[in-house]
Amino acid sequence: MPFSAVLILASVTDKLTEWVTTVVGDLGLAGIFLLMTLESMCIPIPSEPTMLFAGFNVSEGKYSLFAVVSVAVAANLVGSWIAYGVGRFGRIELIEQHGKWLHIKPSHIEWADRWFARYGDAAVFFSRMLPIIRTFISLPAGVARMPFWRFTLFTLLGCIPWMLGLTLAGKAAADNWDNIRDKLHYIDYAVLVLIVVGIVWLVVRWVRGRRGPAADAPAG
Predict the structure, then answer these.
(1) How does pLDDT run across 119-164, given as a tens digit for each residue?
(2) How far is CA 113 from each of CA 13, 100, 117, 133, 153, rounded to the nearest angstrom?
(3) Measuring CA to CA, how many Å separate 208 from each of 1, 105, 199, 215?
(4) What is the rounded distance in angstroms from the CA atom of residue 212 to the CA atom of residue 87?
(5) What is the DSSP letter of 144?
(6) Any residues with CB less than 8 A from the CB of 44 and at least 6 apart, and which?
(7) Measured on CA atoms in the order 165, 177, 22, 13, is the torsion positive or negative?
(8) Which of 27, 54, 188, 202 could form a disulfide with 31, with the two C-beta atoms 3.0–4.6 Å apart?
(9) What Cα–Cα distance (Å) separates residue 214 from each residue in 103, 201, 205, 218?
(10) Where in the chain are the domains?
C-alpha cells in the first residue's frame, strides 16, 4: 500500500474537516443535523470534527448542550433508519444482482439473520461508539432484518453517549480548538489506512474468487 496514496487521501479529508466546520458554523443546528444524518446513511463524513466543533459552539454560548446532543441523536436515528431500510428492502437485489461478485450467497444472509437475532442488540449498541463501524452497522442490520423497534432502541442508546461525549470534549477543549482541529488529520490518517487496507482485502478476495472457477474449469 503506497504511503503516498494515503497522504493524498488524507489531504482530501483535511478539506473535509474544514468543510464540516464551515457547515456547522454557517448552518448551526441544521448543519449538525445534515452532517450527522449523512454520516449515519453510510456516507463517510466523520462525526468527530462535527461534534467537537459543535461542543466548541456550546462553550461559546451559541447553542445549549441539550439542543446539540438532541439534534445529533435525532439525525443519527434518521440516517440509520434510511440505511436500515436500504438493507432490509434491498436484500433480494443484493443477492440476485450483486451476490456473485460480492461472494454473497443466500446461506450467508441466513447466517447474518441468525447472528443478528443472537448478537444484534449488543452489536448495534456498541458499534455506535466505534469510529468507522458506527457509520456502516445499519446496513447489515437491515439486510439481516433485525426487528425495527430493537434496532431503533439500541441505536438510540448507543448514539447518546457518543454524541454527548464528543460534545462535552469539544466544550471542554474550547480554548484549544484551533490546535485540536489541526491535529484531527491524524485521526484521518488512521481511518484512511484502515479503509485502504479494507479495499485491498476486498480486491484480493475478489481476484481469488475469479481465479478459483477458472482453475477448476476442465482443460480444452
Answers:
(1) 778 878 887 877 767 777 888 888 888 889 989 999 999 999 999 9
(2) 35, 19, 6, 19, 18
(3) 18, 17, 14, 10
(4) 29
(5) T
(6) 132, 135, 195
(7) negative
(8) 27
(9) 15, 20, 15, 9
(10) 21-176
CA nearest neighbour of 163 among 51, 78, 59, 74: 51
CA torsion sign, 68 to 161 to 39 to 12?
Answer: positive
Q: First-to-last CA distance in the chain?
A: 38
Least Cα distance to 34 among 52, 45, 166 occurs for 45
Task: Assess contact for 113 and 70: CB atoms under 8 A.
Answer: no
Tell me the three cell numbers of residue 34. Answer: 445534515
In the block, residue with C-alpha cell 444472509:
109
